[in-house]
Input
Amino acid sequence: MARGRFISVEGGEGAGKSTNIEGVRARLHAAGLRVVVTREPGGTPLAEEIRQLLLAPRDEGVCEDTELLLVFAARMQHVERVIKPALARGDWVISDRFTDATIAYQGAGRRMGVERIQALRRLLLGDFAPDLTLLLDVPVDSGMQRLAGRGAPDRFEMEGREFFERVRAAYLQLAAAEPARFRVIDAAQELPAVQAAVAQAVEGFLAQGTTP
Ligand code: T5A
Output
């Protein structure tokens, strides 16, 4: 049986990842593919518990390495228990965020150093990576405005504007470095235009063939 393909969807806060993933899922399903939709941090019961630990605002300052290792602890559980088994049985996987988020948020946002995160990624994941990454790029202010009024911010949403500017710049650098894997979508457009651009990117990927 052919291995499934792995698609990640990335972007800053309020970029519209959750909103657009349904369109990707529907298009793949219409092409006759079995699809697993999942997210990071999270995707398994244990990894979802780690997500709660990561996102909850708390009085105790969270050490950067603690945050980094919690992100990867959740990821390894997710990869081994959900993503790899799904791909092995021929399902396609769409993940709301994957390792590029760690490079952008911890590497650049927290200023831990992109190469340090890449080294940990190589150690734990080897060459395992998404086949396609849709980067929904939106100016920081626009993304923040979309989230306004959504309730209490989580621990990341409490960060300042400069943090999210570094995150955005890192994502764009990653995309520039790997143009074969990334499709950058202008997510500042009206939703129908964003959905059309996402659909076009998925069609292009499907047209390349469905076997790795
Ligand atoms: N994190 C995660 C790390 O630090 N390191 C890591 O390695 C990983 C994996 C949780 C946090 O974890 C951090 C990053 C995050 O801060 P998350 O759950 O993905 O990750 O959190 P968010 O990015 O905060 O997810 P959001 O739900 O906030 O953003 P989405 O999914 O990008 O946006 P969405 O689809 O919910 O849309 C937001 C709002 O905008 C509207 C929608 O209707 C919605 O109201 N909208 C639009 N409005 C106008 N025009 C458009 N084109 C619109 N598209 C959507």
About this structure: Residues 6-207 form a domain with the Rossmann fold fold (CATH 3.40.50.300). Residues 175 and 182 are 5 Å apart (CA to CA).
